[in-house]
Amino acid sequence: MREIRNIVILTGAGISAESGIDTFRSAGGLWEQHRVEDVATPEGFARDPDLVLRFYDMRRAAIQTKAPNAAHLALAELDANWPGELLIVTQNVDDLHERGGARRVLHMHGEHLNAWCTCCDARHRWTGPLIDRPPCPKCEARALRPDVVWFGEMPYHMDRIYRALRGADLFVSIGTSGAVYPAAGLVQNARELGAQTLELNLEPSQGSRLFHESRLGPASAVVPQWVAEVLAG
Ligand code: OAD
After folding, report:
1. Residues flanking ligand 1, CB < 6 Å
2. Which of 2, 8, 162, 191 is the most exposed place for a label (fewest CB within 10 A)?
3. CA 133 to ligand 1 centroid distance, Å
4. Is position 109 annotated as part of the catalytic site?
5. Which fold has domain 7-232?
6. What is the pLDDT along the chain (233 residues), one digit of tens a residue?
7. Catalytic-role residue among 72, 97, 107, 109
C-alpha cells in the first residue's frame, strides 16, 4: 500500500445528522416529506416558485440554529494539521464544515447561505428569506434563487474535484448513501486512479462494496477515531 500524503474526503447528509439536520433518504427524511420534483428541480421552481422559495427559506433559517458535531470538528482538526493535500468535498448545503473550522472545503451541491442572481449571475452571502423577492445587491433584478444544485443541473467544482482525485492516495466517503451521481461515482474514479478507499457510514450504503474498507457507526464516533488514527500515522 502506498504512503498516504494526499486525501480527498466526500461528505453527505449523514455527517450532519447528529447536528439535527434531516438526511434525505432515511425513514422520515426530507424526500419522504417533500417531492423532489416539486422542490429540487428547475421545473418545480418554474411551476411554483413560492413553494420552492418558502421551502429553502425554512431550511436556510433552520441550519443557522444548528451546530457542528464531533465529526465536523475532527475533520477541521485534520484539515489544520494534515501536511499533505487535503480536500473536503461536501454534498451538503449547510455550512457546518466551515463553522467547525475546516478551510479546504468545496460545496458540490451549492450552499443554503448563498443566493444566486439568475439575471447577472452574481452570488451573494444570504442569511435571510428570498420569498419577498429582494433585489440583487449587484444588478437590482428581483431574480435571486437559492444557490443550491437541483436535479438536472450540473454540480459545481467538478474540475477541481477530479484534479484532486488524480493526486489522491486515499479517498474517504462519510455519511452518504451513494444514490446520487456524480458524487456516488467518485469512489470508482478514485479506485481507478489508484487510491485506497474507505467508507464511514452508519449502515452499509448502496456503494459499500466499491470500497476497500467500510467502517460502520455514527459519524460523531467513527470520524474522530479515524482522524486520530490518520494523524498518528
Ligand atoms: P442520504 O440521505 O441519501 O444518505 C445519508 C446517509 O447517511 C445514509 O447512508 C445514512 O445511513 C447515513 N447516516 C445517517 N445518519 C448517520 C450518522 N449519524 N453517521 C453516519 N452516517 C449516517 O444523503 P446524501 O447521500 O448526502 O442532493 O444525499 C446525496 C444527495 O441527495 C444530496 O446532496 C441531495 C440529495 O438529493 C441534491 O439535492 C442535489
Report:
1. 12-14, 17-18, 23-26, 29, 40, 91, 109, 149, 175-177, 179-180, 201-203, 205, 218-219
2. 2
3. 30
4. yes
5. Rossmann fold (3.40.50)
6. 568 999 999 999 999 999 999 998 887 777 778 889 999 999 999 999 999 999 999 999 999 999 999 999 999 999 999 999 999 999 999 999 999 999 999 999 999 999 999 999 999 999 999 999 999 999 999 999 999 999 999 999 999 999 999 999 999 999 999 999 999 999 999 999 999 999 999 999 888 999 999 999 999 999 999 999 999 98
7. 109
The answer for residues whose C-beta is within 8 angstroms of residue 192's C-beta and 6 or more apart is none
Burial class (CB in 10 A: 0-12, 13-18, 19+), 128: exposed
- How far, in Å, CA of 137 to CA of 126, rounded? 11
Pocket test for ligand 1, best of 174, 186, 202, 214 (most atoms within 8 A of CB): 202
pTM: 0.97
Atom 16 of ligand 1: nearest residue by CA position: 14
> Which of 16, 25, 75 has the most ligand 1 atoms within 8 A of CB, as the residue to mutate?
25
Phi and psi torsions of 194, nearest 5°: 95, 10
Domain boundaries, the chain: 7-232
- Which cell goes with 90? 461536501
